[in-house]
Amino acid sequence: MAHRIAFLGFVALAVCASLSLAADPANLQDFCVADASGNTRMNGMACKNPAMVQASDFAFSGLHIPGNTSNSVGSRVTPVAVTQIPGLNTLGISMVRIDYAPWGINSLHTHPRSLEVGFVTSNPENRHITKILKKGDVFVFPVGLIHYQRNIGYGNVVAIAALSSQNPGVITIANTVFGSKPDINTDLLAKAFQVDKSVVWQLQTKF
């Protein structure tokens, strides 16, 4: 069966004003291939010796392989970030393939498709902006806002997402709030969500 494909663009726009700028306008070397074995701690990963760089540092194979969606949410994310392609280091970009079974979801999350997509604006408006995407459509999630995707069709869906970070990470809201180790205090969560503590306990047992 042919997959429906939707393209998502994750665009982050930042405007900075300053009396003086000390940053370089561009990289000062051809590349900085990530050295996973390096012990240096920095914002990013240390550079591999350029003489040791191989073509495989800039390549990834497997994005054509469907992800296994036999799980509780009915979706599977295949990342292509700096961990998979060391040559992405310092380039500030990555991508993912997301497979959805019928009615599968990519749950509410942030990064620190017919597909239904949506995001919620910040306080106090908390406006829910949503759209149904069809084959070939593009949708932008503003940086930092909670967003989701759900396959509302009866066939499998594949989405390709571009992210404005070489290692974007994922914070799934439900897992973070109710599945933290150790647990967040139940009184705090009950008050924050305006529910009884028994509801919080039940949710914590699920995550």
Automatic annotation (TrEMBL):
In the UniProt record, does the keyword Signal occur? yes
Residue stretches spanning the membrane:
none
Q: Name one Pfam family in it.
A: Cupin_1
**InterPro entries per UniProt:** Cupin_1, Germin, Germin_Mn-BS, RmlC-like_jellyroll, RmlC_Cupin_sf
Alphabetical GO CC annotations of the entry are:
apoplast
Give the range the annotation lists for the signal sequence. 1-22
Q: List the disulfide bonds.
A: 32-47
Q: Which UniProt keywords apply?
A: Apoplast, Disulfide bond, Glycoprotein, Manganese, Metal-binding, Secreted, Signal
Provide the Cupin type-1 domain boundaries.
61-201
Query: Where does this protein hold oxalate?
Result: 106, 111, 116
Recorded coiled-coil stretches: none
Q: Which PROSITE patterns match?
A: GERMIN
Query: Where is this protein localized, as stated in its record?
Result: Secreted, Extracellular space, Apoplast
GO MF annotation terms: manganese ion binding
Q: What is its main location?
A: secreted
Stored SUPFAM superfamilies: RmlC-like cupins (SSF51182)
The entry marks the following residues as binding Mn(2+), namely 109, 111, 116, 147
Name the job this protein performs.
May play a role in plant defense. Probably has no oxalate oxidase activity even if the active site is conserved.
Q: Which family does it belong to?
A: Belongs to the germin family.
Q: What is the name attached to this protein's record?
A: Cupin type-1 domain-containing protein
